[in-house]
Write a structure and sequence with these properties.
3-stranded parallel β-sheet, binds guanine, single chain, Rossmann fold, globular, 43% helix
Length: 283
């Protein structure tokens, strides 16, 4: 039986640390860290994430703004809002919830967020800094995965880390972070010739493909540490990308869905927003 990696508890500890650091920062500088979240349209998943972000901001003592735009908002109007937030002194982090409606060019919006306010870590400047190991904003979900491993006592150095999925938001950045932590990293995707052969070589397996329960027990080795990034709705319930009931019997540790990676994303967003406010003071 695997140890269950309790992301909810680890994330709560991190939010408490951010709350303590924020109280100290406010007392020293008189500045309240501010986060602006922009959501376009009414996707229920996105709305849930955004309301969780607002709750977390209140809990750690941030100022927060929510901008809810209708699904037919033009690209130009969204660009104008992002530019206004870039110039707003109260705001240290600008987050535009993805995905955006198809008539809006996501890359163009991300490119417009000021790199000093890019708390999502999606701007090309942030991604470039990550790749060459320079300080900057690290994308929240990948960073949350590394912190989950560290705080669960998993040593990454020298391990075979296998990442399934190559998205810009999770697969690619988490691969770079695992490499920085001295893992030997394999990135698998929809065109990988023999996925099971690759995943069986994993000491640490990170799965972010958006296919419910796709990783089965015969695809992993005994003692593997499994990080499941999937959040799929199946029959009104959440299901990960890993078949938890099967894989849990072979793994040494595994994240549940929900309550694994998800809460970490928001905790890391709080960290990034505080870091942004702190960096502005140091400049
Ligand atoms: N959609 C799913 N995850 C994320 C995230 O971390 N940030 C943003 N902006 N949108 C998302």
């Amino acid at each position: 039986m695997a140890k269950i990696i309790d992301g909810k508890a680890i994330a709560a500890t991190i939010r408490q640390e951010v709350a303590d650091d924020t109280a100290r920062f406010k007392a020293e500088t008189g500045i309240t860290p501010g986060l602006a979240v922009v959501i376009v349209g009414e996707d229920p998943g996105s709305q849930l994430y955004v309301s969780n972000k607002e709750k977390a901001c209140a809990e750690v003592g941030f100022y927060s703004e929510k901008h809810e735009l209708s699904v037919d908002t033009t690209e130009e109007d969204l660009l104008t809002l992002v530019e206004k937030l870039n110039g707003d002194e109260k705001i240290h982090g600008v987050l535009v919830q993805l995905p955006l409606p198809s008539h809006i060019d996501e890359d163009k919006i991300i490119d417009t967020i000021h790199p000093m306010k890019d708390v999502d870590g999606f701007h090309p400047v942030s991604i470039g800094n990550l790749l060459i190991g320079k300080p900057g904003f690290v994308p929240c979900t990948p960073h949350g995965i590394i912190v989950l491993l560290e705080r669960s006592g998993v040593d990454i150095t020298g391990k075979n880390a296998v990442v399934v999925g190559r998205s810009n938001i999770v697969g690619k950045p988490v691969s770079v972070l695992l490499l920085q932590e001295n893992a030997t990293v394999t990135i698998c995707h929809s065109r990988t010739a023999d996925l099971a052969a690759e995943t069986r070589r994993a000491d640490i397996l990170v799965v972010a493909i958006g296919k419910p329960r796709m990783i089965k027990a015969d695809m992993v080795s005994d003692g593997v540490v499994v990080i499941d990034v999937g959040t799929n709705r199946v029959d009104g319930k959440w299901a990960g990308d890993v078949d938890f009931d099967e894989v849990e019997k072979k793994a040494s540790a595994i994240t549940p869905v929900p309550g694994g990676v998800g809460p970490m994303t928001i905790a890391m967003l709080m960290q990034n927003t505080l870091k942004s406010a702190q960096m502005k003071v140091k400049k």
